[in-house]
Amino acid sequence: MRRIIKKFNLKKFNTFGIEVIADYFFAFTDIIDLKSFLKNDLYNHLDKQVLGGGSNILLTKDFKGVIIHPFCKDIVKKKTTSNSYLIKADAGVNWDSFVEKCVENNWYGLENLSGIPGKVGAAPIQNIGAYGVELKDFIEKIETINLETHELEIFYHDQCNFGYRDSIFKQSLKGKHVITAVYFSLLKEPNLVTSYKAVEEELNKIGPATAQNLRKAILNIRESKLPKPIDFPNAGSFFKNPIISLSEFKKIKSKNPEIPHYIESDKKVKIPAAWLIEQCGFKGYKNGKVAVHDKQALVIINTGGAKAKDILNLADKICSKVKKTFGIQLEKEINLI
Ligand code: EPU
């Protein structure tokens, strides 16, 4: 691909398939390339936005500035310890290809995160998680280029402020760094997480409990519930699962005894947003060019030619109804640009 492109249509670079134009698009192949671009007088005064796979964003308007896209794709084993491997993956590696490679090489831990769209560089920003596994538990450190100083910086695990779908890169450092590589500490021995009933059941159907079979099970489950962006443009979960107080939970449960929930601590309970949305009658709901997926109510789909405002209107409608019905304020999981 050409590396610096003017007036670039981002339709293929966001899984919602929204058409917006960026003034400039730049794909970097390594750190040196990125640094020299950032120092270039033609571009260094422009607003900058990093865009990997575009699988967790909603593009709301044309972008007056430069979109920076990681195009570096190496995966290297850096170190072996008594029970782990330190693996460096470049930001531009496709996330699921990385998980596939890990499973093939017997680098264990990430199996449950199979099939998540996006690139390696974006994964730690929202601390991706699925089926009882969270990425943060496998991150050793993150390499970035600081957009202000143009210097390389390293963030060790404890400096990343990881939380549920959250990290320092979504908070105080939002927009300030380009993640160029992620270092993972992966296990030498399998430690398969099959605590989710659906996972255990699917794995039993496939065969012995191996990392390969667990990956297959996860891919099957995802395929049965989550729409493929290529068929139904979407950005995965649109909202976070809300975390509410125990007293609020008890009130809701008294009227809805069947409410699914996960105890977070002795004072906090997480509720699946998909359940709240479904209870409000939105599962499969269509509204012009957008719809709520009919198999997973947390996913909003662009059914053809939608603009960000169509998606946001539906999201607002859902939020108001959930708030009115349950008193719970949903929060967006995706990023707006
Ligand atoms: N449910 C409904 N209606 C639905 C779907 C689900 O009532 O349409 C209820 C069911 O009770 C179900 C529960 O919600 O047991 C949980 O559903 P699911 O296992 O599908 O997971 P989720 O909480 O809706 C989260 C992540 C997903 C991740 C899955 C699997 C968030 C915001 N989402 O969804 O992540 O794949 O768990 O672990 O935490 C993403 O972030 O894009 C994403 C897809």
Q: What's this entry about, in short?
A:
With 337 residues, this protein is an alpha+beta fold. It contains 7 helices and 20 strands. It starts with a strand and ends with a strand.
Provide an overview of this structure.
The protein folds into three domains: about 1-70, Uridine Diphospho-n-acetylenolpyruvylglucosamine Reductase, domain 2 (2-Layer Sandwich), CATH 3.30.43; about 75-185, 2-Layer Sandwich (Uridine Diphospho-n-acetylenolpyruvylglucosamine Reductase, domain 3), CATH 3.30.465.10; about 235-335, UDP-N-acetylenolpyruvoylglucosamine reductase, C-terminal domain (Uridine Diphospho-n-acetylenolpyruvylglucosamine Reductase, domain 1), CATH 3.90.78.10. The chain has seven helices and 20 strands. It has helices at about 30-40, 95-105, 195-205, 210-225, 245-255, 275-280, 310-325, and strands spanning about 5-10, 20-30, 50, 55-60, 65-70, 75-80, 85-90, 130, 135, 140-145, 150-155, 175-185, 235, 245, 260-265, 270, 285, 290, 300, 335. Strand 15 (about 260-265) and strand 16 (about 270) form a beta hairpin. The two termini are about 25 Å apart. The model has no long low-confidence stretch (mean pLDDT about 95). The chain binds uridine-diphosphate-2(N-acetylglucosaminyl) butyric acid. Uridine-diphosphate-2(N-acetylglucosaminyl) butyric acid (EPU) binds near residues 241, 260, 272, 296 and 333.
